[in-house]
Amino acid sequence: MGTVHVFDHPLIQHKLALLRDKNTATKDFRELVKEISMLMAFEATSNLPLKDVEVETPICKATMKMLEGEDIAIIPILRAGLGMVDGILALVPNAKVGHVGLYRDPETHLPVEYYCKLPADISKREIFVIDPMLATGGSAAAAIDFIKAKGGKKIHFLCLIAAPEGIEVLHNAHPDVNVYVAAKDSHLNDHAYIVPGLGDAGDRLYGTK
User: Fold this and answer.
1) Which residue among the candidates 108, 125, 176, 190 is catalytic per the annotation?
2) What's this model's pTM, rounded to 2 decimal places?
3) Residue 21 bears catalytic tag
4) Is 28 a catalytic residue?
5) Residue 203 catalytic?
6) Per-residue pLDDT tens digits for 5-47
7) Which residue of 108, 142, 146, 183 has the fewest CB atoms within a 10 Å radius of its CB?
């Protein structure tokens, strides 16, 4: 069964509190999502495999550590997941970026797919699926279904805020996927919003509501 990693780093928690504030403006919200994503990615990549390489410094040759394999793929779930991409790319600029487009049916709350474009070498990459919110878990589970169907294997899910219900759904569907969150909140309300949450991440990122 995959594990849940909750990051309690003071900088992450401080920025997350600002992000939750309903008075935080769109520009500031966008910047906070980017900053938190970068801090979380730093923590979430701590176990990436390394290999020994020979480097010649100005003084001598020495054996050093570098990333092993085909590096990283970042897969945002559209549209809110896009807000997290730049923060992660600041750390791993050579990562390839795919996209999965889903929306939640307002009546059934189930995910509906409209787009999926992934790197051709997705099977060789360490994959980070990203979305600010893990609410019902339906969209995350469906996105990972699509990625696995196209050959993705080493998959992690990275989000800012998660509800227990969403974590359970995701782990039931994909027990091999680890979940990384900045906060595990209380529950979902009757409209399938996370409580206390931060509202609709997409609307707050793009000023559409």
Assistant:
1) 108
2) 0.89
3) no
4) no
5) yes
6) 999 899 999 999 999 999 999 999 999 999 999 999 999 988 8
7) 108
